[in-house]
Design a protein that fits this description.
mainly alpha; 2 domains; elongated; transmembrane helix; ER membrane protein complex subunit 3; transmembrane
Amino acid sequence: MSSNNAQIRDWVLFPITLVMILVGILRHYIVLLLQSPPKTLPREALREQRALTRSQVLRSSAANSPIPPTYYKAISRHLSEAYEAGTYLKDGPPKEGDAPKPPPNPISDPAAMDGMMAGMKTQMVMMVPQMVIMGWINFFFQGFVLIKLPFPLTLGFKSMLQRGIETPDMDVRWVSSLSWYFLNFFGLNGLYRLILGGDNSADSSRDMTASPFAAPQAPGQAQDYNKLFKAEKDNLQFSEGVYSWVGEGVEDRVLGRYGKI
């Protein structure tokens, strides 16, 4: 290897790769510092969700239930009566004449505003370093040819591997400094997953779809648990019709299996 190639390797190729790795790791930890701790739900809202989950778990095992019939029917009827009376509702049983509450406005909801600001800060942390690195490479290393790939390629790869160099006669296997940046931009994600774990904030592929100036998405319709409870009551009544206890005739089945009857 000539001295010029060794200098390009030591002062261009390695610094670009090392800077991108360190910036990705640093960005991951900055995003972790910017994230606010998850807010706990009030006890009433948590009870509202768990009551619905309890019924769904009970129904999912109705066809082959480990719960004896007496207890199963008692639990099912208790839940049905509670759903009908609105016992588990966060705001208590609905009163006659009350109109359904509209979904909260994200502009006036402090929790929603905090979430939008946190998302915008995270997107800025993910986008700004890449813009700075690209400007640094264009300013200091523009026009450098770094490496030659050891395998043949078609001419279709020339525009991807030789960005910033207008030389039609150059072998397509040579890689420019700007193209090396883009190769690292996508190719280091596997290294980040190895170092930081699968759910890391250094994944550069997210930068392609995220924008710090994107408008926040409109919130979805708030769930009306009163309607969900009424529908779950009907589902519980239906599940009682298909209920089957797994312990029905278990004595005869065990004795028959071992040849005692």
